[in-house]
Amino acid sequence: MESRIGAAPDGSSTYFLPRLIGYSRAMELYLTNRALSAREAMEWGLVNRVVADAEFAGAVSSLARELARGPTFAYGLAKKLFLHSTQESLETQMELEAQAIAATGHSEDFKNGIAAFAGKLGPPEFKGR
Questions:
Q1: Span 115-125, pLDDT tens digits
Q2: Is-contact 39 32, C-beta < 8 A?
């Protein structure tokens, strides 16, 4: 980290890190320059999963394929909602969610998803529209 060279934190770490792991842990990492183990990073919520080095490329490829086949239009709206959620009131966030639900409800992906679910046709084919 930056304290090792006498620099202040940067890269928006002072914004995101305390929100992810708490103020005390964020300060500890900056002040001590301690490297976390994979297990610690998982326990602290900095990573979602840990895989062995030999399995890494396969795990990344598998996740990328899964996400690419998913409803990318809905994924984009979800990302915006989650990013705004720390700045908005509950009422505003619920309104933003209602708007996103309405937008996805008119999408081709939603129609394909409902048709596949109702008809038990197997996984839907999403196109990001």
A1: 888 887 778 88
A2: no
